[in-house]
Amino acid sequence: MNELIKDVHIAIIGAGMGGLATALALAKQGFTHISVYEAASHLGFVGAGIQLAPNMARILDRLGCWVEIEKEAVDLKETSIRQGDTDTELTHVDLRYIRETYSYPHMVVHRASLATALFNACKRSPSITFNFSTTISPIHTFSPLPTFSATPRYSPPYTVTCSILLACDGVKSPTRTSLLTALNAHADILDTSQAAYRIMLSRAQLTPFPHLLALLDSQAVTRWIGPSRHIIAYPVSSHTIYNISTVQPDTNFAAAPSATYTTRGSKTSMLETFSDFCPRVQEMLQLVPDTEVCEWKLRVHPPLPTWIHGCVALVGDAAHPTLPHLAQGAAQAIEDAAVLGVVLSKCPDTSPESINKSLKVYEKVRKERAEILVELAAQSGRELHLGEGKAREERDRVFREGGAEGKVPDKWADREVQGMVYGFDCVEIAEGCFEKVFRAL
Hints:
Elements: E1 9-13, H1 17-28, E2 33-37, E3 49-52, H2 54-62, H3 66-70, E4 74-75, E5 78-83, E6 89-94, H4 97-102, E7 107-110, H5 111-123, E8 128-131, E9 134-136, E10 147-152, E11 158-161, E12 164-167, H6 174-182, E13 190-202, H7 203-206, H8 210-216, E14 220-226, E15 229-236, E16 241-249, E17 262-264, H9 267-273, H10 279-286, E18 294-300, E19 308-309, E20 312-314, H11 329-345, H12 352-384, H13 390-402, H14 415-422, H15 426-440
Parallel strand pairs: 1-2, 1-12, 2-8, 5-14, 12-20
Antiparallel strand pairs: 3-7, 4-7, 5-6, 9-10, 10-11, 13-16, 13-18, 14-15, 15-16, 17-18, 19-20
């Protein structure tokens, strides 16, 4: 690393998965002045389960987080894809080959475990400073030095000037809006007409029901599919919690403001949505306390013309939000972080021109891949949600005949797609192509 570049001020907006991973990746590369700005007063980690695919695990290991995360994670050995109404198994896919093939297993964990491990690693680095309870205004300048206003909750606003600004501020990213406006472009949020319930059932809740407790004690992902809906479930937190995530048509957000992404859900509505699903699903949904039903609106935006303007770059959901059907949202944000660590460490000097070119190398390595995976997730959702008809009959035939070889319509479980996703080492690619791509810009 150039000795001057390591001391530049790098500002990161947002302390979600992408922001934490980006800060840590930069610190691991030797950067000394990293400031993270977060609107929340603290990182009270909530949420549901999250999947740790090998492409994510590989990066977490390099960042020094994997051992801590792995302790609470559940190693997946198999997946069962089933008809939602009858509970009939359409296919069974063996996942045990993944560890041997990609050097890491496919594991699942509570989202809080992943975020806490990243945050703890960041706190151990003297190079990273967190600024909580601080909101950020739209960006004032993008180059030669990015500037923005930071407003602490209980203090006057102040202006921040940095050499590099990385926007990890999510699907509602104000930075994305500012960046595209400056380029006379736009990318409006797309309504997917889909929403999701995220449910966590404890061991205590499941213990009275041996057939449900068996799911918690398994090392399996189970997916129940039906017209326009599906449910995916698996154990997390060392088999103490059963994580259930649903996708269904949006009815509660359709008339809501575009800024609304979550709402207190109705248990009655949830049960009605899945009323034709099998008794096993019904029993689990009945266990959810009335006050713990929460629904998320699933929104994305079309591919952006660019992620870069001057010395500012978009990261994670700010750049490429995705539907959850491929379980790669967090993994792709963490790939972004790892690549940013590589390309910025290789920047030959501190000039805005070199920083901009280095960020463009990041975009070159990441943009096409991320957008392909976003589209694969959408394709998978369309396949899983087919209604009655010839297309569904053909899908089910492929499920029945292809499971043993891992050739299935569910892209998440398809072995060829897994090879493309899990076998990709973004750090190796970035390190190998940086010089050539940088020179060509």
